[in-house]
């Protein structure tokens, strides 16, 4: 119940691959293959119009999934570190070293990122505590009666009645009530701290709060 809500934000950044001159020189062509490569077919090594958004399918042109062109999924295309860096904007200052964080002015970009990091670390600690309290609570049986109801029966019992079972039931009910209270307090503290963390992230960002992969990358940079 303490999971953060993350959604995905993307941005555009261009990267261009290059084809090694040595790789091209190493290629040899027959007259037939050279003719095919300069045509409009799908399998040539030239500037044909087939393929996926490129000038040749599976060749050395600009298209294809495995090339170094502008759109390849496995190449040096638009998706990747460039998009994440663009989404983070000024939050890329999170790459600063520990000494910079320690000596940063609170109003500086690095100082604001440091405040967010400290808040996020505390959120992690409080969330872990809440999870531990919940785990302890789940080990206990849910009582069928409240402590007050059991105490009332004990008080109304005829003198000399064996109260062993009632007292055991009361002890279990009190233990559950205490564990439930401890969990609720821990969960509330974690939720409140998470809100503080979000506010500090908003204060540190200059392009809106990062989400999805960008947020994950930021937290990784900060050791979160």
Instruction: Provide the gyration radius in Å.
Output: 32 Å
**Main sheet: strands, sense, barrel:** none
State the helicity in percent bands.
40-55%
Question: How much β-strand is present in the residues?
Answer: under 5%
Mean pLDDT score = 74
Structural class: mainly alpha
Number of strands: 0
What pattern of helices and strands is seen along the backbone?
HHHHHHHH
User: How many H/I helical runs?
Assistant: 8
Form type: rod-shaped
Give the termini distance in whole angstroms: 19 Å
Query: Low-confidence spans: pLDDT under 50, at least 5 residues?
Result: 1-78
Short description:
The chain has 8 helices and no strands.
Explain what the structure shows.
The protein has 224 residues and is mostly helical. The protein is 52% helix and 0% strand. It contains 8 helices and no strands. The chain has helices at residues 21-25, 31-37, 81-88, 98-103, 109-138, 147-156, 164-204, 212-221. Helix 3 (81-88) crosses helix 8 (212-221) and helix 5 runs antiparallel to helix 7. It is rod-shaped and about 80 Å long. The chain starts with 20 loop residues before the first helix and ends with a helix. The model is unreliable at 1-78 (pLDDT under 50).
């Amino acid at each position: 119940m303490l999971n953060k809500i993350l959604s995905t934000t993307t941005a555009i950044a261009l990267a261009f691959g290059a084809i090694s001159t040595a790789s091209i020189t190493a290629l040899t062509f027959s007259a037939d293959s050279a003719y095919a490569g300069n045509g409009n077919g799908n399998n040539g090594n030239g500037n044909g119009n087939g393929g996926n958004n490129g000038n040749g399918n599976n060749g050395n042109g600009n298209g294809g999934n495995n090339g170094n062109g502008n759109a390849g999924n496995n190449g040096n295309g638009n998706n990747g570190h460039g998009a994440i860096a663009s989404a983070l904007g000024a939050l890329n200052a999170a790459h600063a070293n520990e000494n910079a964080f320690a000596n940063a002015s609170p109003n500086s970009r690095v100082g604001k990122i440091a405040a967010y990091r400290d808040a996020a670390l505390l959120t992690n600690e409080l969330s872990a505590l809440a999870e531990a309290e919940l785990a302890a609570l789940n080990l206990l049986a849910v009582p069928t009666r409240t402590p007050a109801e059991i105490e009332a029966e004990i008080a109304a019992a005829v003198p000399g009645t064996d109260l062993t079972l009632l007292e055991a039931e009361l002890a279990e009910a009190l233990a559950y009530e205490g564990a439930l209270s401890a969990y609720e307090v821990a969960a509330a503290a974690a939720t409140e701290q998470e809100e503080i963390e979000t506010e500090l992230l908003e204060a540190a960002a200059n392009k809106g709060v990062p989400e999805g992969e960008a947020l994950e990358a930021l937290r990784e940079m900060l050791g979160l």
